[in-house]
């Protein structure tokens, strides 16, 4: 008898070796038109990447973030949890998109730009390289924005 377990032997000793559990690497989601879209989990961060989107292997897309078909995310970019990158948007190298931010369809974010928490970038808007859009700020549809290092907007 094993006195360390009150006379009982360990149950794990009786069971077969534990098998590794492998989960599926994709999620199917039905859109508002009833069409099913397939999203795969990105290797860096486990965010969801739609078929037809291109995300560089060195980019991070955190869990809970979505990248829609036709969108592109470049090298070393970061997309925070809960962010939504809509179709045909382009996220440049080393861009930081904050948690719960929304980047509209066709929007362009230049290399090194920073998009704050809950910020909204409109349809076909453009944010210049290195620009800063602060938390809870917005860029209107079609607007072109450049800022200084403090996030103050520059004259066009």
Keyword list:
8-stranded mixed beta sheet; UDP N-Acetylglucosamine Acyltransferase, domain 1; disordered N terminus; globular; 0% helix; 29% strand; 6-stranded parallel beta sheet; mainly beta; 156 residues
Structural notes for this entry:
This protein is an all-beta fold. The chain has a single domain (25-145), classed as UDP N-Acetylglucosamine Acyltransferase, domain 1 (3 Solenoid). 0% of the residues lie in helices and 29% in strands. It contains no helices and 19 strands. It has strands at 26-30, 36-41, 48-50, 54-55, 60-61, 66-67, 72-73, 78-79, 84-85, 90-91, 96-97, 102-103, 108-109, 114-115, 120-121, 126-127, 132-133, 138-139, 144-145. It has an eight-stranded mixed beta sheet, with no helix packed on it. A hairpin with a 5-residue loop joins strand 1 and strand 2. Residues 1-21 have low confidence and may be disordered.
Question: How would the blueprint of this fold be written?
Answer:
Elements: E1 26-30, E2 36-41, E3 48-50, E4 54-55, E5 60-61, E6 66-67, E7 72-73, E8 78-79, E9 84-85, E10 90-91, E11 96-97, E12 102-103, E13 108-109, E14 114-115, E15 120-121, E16 126-127, E17 132-133, E18 138-139, E19 144-145
Parallel strand pairs: 3-6, 4-7, 5-8, 6-9, 7-10, 8-11, 9-12, 10-13, 11-14, 12-15, 13-16, 14-17, 15-18, 16-19
Antiparallel strand pairs: 1-2, 2-3
């Amino acid at each position: 008898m094993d006195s360390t377990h009150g006379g009982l032997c360990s149950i794990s000793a009786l069971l077969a070796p534990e098998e590794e559990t492998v989960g599926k690497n994709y999620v199917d989601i039905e859109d508002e038109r009833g069409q099913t879209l397939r999203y795969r989990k990105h290797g860096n961060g486990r965010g969801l990447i739609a078929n037809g989107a291109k995300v560089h292997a060195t980019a991070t897309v955190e869990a809970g973030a979505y990248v829609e078909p036709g969108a592109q995310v470049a090298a070393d970019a970061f997309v925070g949890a809960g962010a939504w990158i809509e179709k045909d948007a382009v996220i440049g190298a080393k861009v930081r998109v904050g948690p719960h931010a929304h980047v509209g369809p066709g929007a362009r974010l230049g290399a090194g730009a920073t998009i704050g928490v809950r910020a909204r970038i409109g349809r076909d808007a453009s944010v210049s390289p290195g620009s800063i859009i602060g938390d809870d700020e917005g860029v209107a549809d079609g607007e072109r924005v450049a800022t200084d290092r403090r996030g103050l907007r520059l004259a066009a």
